[in-house]
DNA sequence: CTTAGGG
DNA sequence: CCCTAAG
């Protein structure tokens, strides 16, 4: 999605624009990135705290908006001269560059300061259209060394083989055309796309964080960054991109988190966690904006906004039109939807009978045969309810006083006889472990 | 699509 | 009741 969401052309430039002949290597930052960033603050005037995190990045990106410039220590790459950019580059990568393309320099520096799991390539010498290595062992050693400092990064051998160098060289061969005209596009978008691409190769073997993790992390952090931004404290290290939607509603960045991808490392593991929006969980509509070709960015953004508003409206109307859907405040303050359909006694009885007949675990079967008329009960619901019944029965029966506590898991007070029956079934089925065809149980139970 | 389990 | 990894 991220790929689709960004303008077609500018985005491809991760390979195309970025990988310019002379410096395909520079993509990758010094190994201990955070470390070096911090050091930078010490001796490198231009790069002081500049862009080691998303907030700063968006600050740079949205430099047309003065709001960010108030952040102490922030430097807008946009405002730097070529020479200054070159100095920053040097401070960042530990080597000189003769590139005069500001856009290119800016992007490199952004990447350099934001990547956290890449390796130093300073042992490489860049020359004309090629990359000359000082020696393979040397590089690998270097990589190894870096890895040893970061136990979470993937295998050494892979990193040597899949060194960014080779990828980049390869890429630059097949596409270089679209290049420059895209330069005026949002850096953030480029940033995002690069992340996506880089992620694929750099962390190929790392386990992908779950969608949920990503979303929740994103949410938490965007909240974070908002507050941090407002208070404007000096903690750049943890603030995140996609901030001030409030300050600048028409802002290109972040009305919809889906076209932002930030590059964070997951608990220092080097796994990259994209920044996503959690607005909608259902399937996207077919002709959703994100699939539209981009012609004019102004048009794009306004339409996006409209679309977003629609989306929100749908969401709301849905929640309020459906009797069974209520929003409940969750512990963390967010709203959570809940379909609450209290189990009726007859349903419980049906369930218990179903279990008796077909056996616990055959939820879909029970649902199909005994709950045909209760479309809202899914097999998962049955399973959940059974679990709760078990808990209730074992917790409550020994002493009839447990009544109150047992309701914790049961929507309705379950009559003791039923609970007894539940328990009976549970014990019986525990003795005769499943694995046979339900028919046995069926007959066994009259 | 189901199941099983954690949240 | 929700979510999601496994199968």
UniProtKB/TrEMBL annotation:
Record domain HTH myb-type: where: 335-394
Pfam families assigned: Myb_DNA-binding
Annotated Gene Ontology cellular component terms: nucleus
Keywords assigned: Nucleus
Transmembrane segments: none
Xref: InterPro entries: Homeodomain-like_sf, Myb_dom, SANT/Myb
Positions of the Myb-like domain: 342-390
Subcellular location: Nucleus
SUPFAM superfamilies, per the entry: Homeodomain-like
PANTHER family named among the record's database cross-references: MYB-LIKE DNA-BINDING DOMAIN CONTAINING PROTEIN, EXPRESSED, TRF-LIKE 3
This protein's name: Telomere repeat-binding factor like
